[in-house]
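User: I'm new to structure prediction. If I give you an amino acid sequence, what do you actually give back? Let's try with this one:
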Amino acid sequence: MALYADLHRHLGGSVVPRILWRYFQRHNPDLAQQYPDYSEFEEFYTRERNTLDEYLELHTLVESVQNIDTLPYFIYRLIRGAYIFENLAYLEIRYTPYLRTNPTLSENQRIEQMRAIVEVVDKASKVNEYPIITSQILCMHTRLSYDINRAIVDLAADNKHQICAIDVAGGDKLYEDKIDEFVKLYQYARSRGIKTTGHLFETPYGSYPELLPYLMRIGHGIQIPLQHPELLTEVASLNQCLEICPTTYLKTGTLDDLKQLKIVFDRCFEAGVDMAICTDNAGLHNVRLPFEYENLLTQDIIDFGQLQTCQDASFRHAFAWPYSQPPSALLVGLLEERENTKHSISHRQKTLSP
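Assistant: Good question. You get back a string of structure tokens that encode the predicted 3D arrangement of the chain. For your 354 residues, that looks like this:
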């Protein structure tokens, strides 16, 4: 039985290098010529970058081949891998729908096509042989206009059966010039009953406390315990959950060593702030969720009890998990029910025996 939840996974960064390289070889001759050797492509695709901005440029490579026709190809393989190799019971897939539309269309036509993109992602995510509960988070983007970002909010509000929340993505250095816009957009989203998360406090450049009151979860948020621990009380009082993505901080040059996360976990546990351990971009990292767990444990950043606490928090803060308990508790209930049935049958047999 699948047991885990990943609350922070980007569609653009979810494609593992082998699958992306094979797609190039089969369907995109131009990119196939650029990357003829798989080992060289894997090294390029998964190596550490110096900054978050440099790291985010890799998303454009995947976004260039993810469109309304090809999305089912990539999503099927994402769901298959998440179920078989990661034991996921629940997955929130986030992406900017506008960046999957046809770039040759007008802006209004691209905004209209976003609805079709959402439908394709929803349909492709429902794979009977790999039963994972999925939902979509639509990302506004720092490089898009206010009108496009508001259209993304409206799309989420009009399709709550498919979309569980909104987010804001893009380099956090770009937030400053648009911070008033994003405050208005988040206020508008909350007024329409949309759940919210946002990439915030990931790097020292992403510290914008103005957005905190409008978020139900915080994408990353590690700079709060590292640089702004005075905010932890507010985060705890708002019942916000930090979406911690360990490998990301090495790949973006945000942290030099994974052990620097120990102070993040220690301060959050002490302040009563919930954390969910996530992958962010499992494909770009070539690291799946169970390995994120293992890396934190083997480097003594957290212990097994703390890991369980974070796993439980993932389901408690999941925007579209339909049950009041995580899968492990449901499984225990099924086993107890089975044992009770066996004992009841055994008791009746003994009672009826001559």
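You can read the tokens as a compact description of the fold. Here is one thing that stands out. The mean pLDDT is 91.
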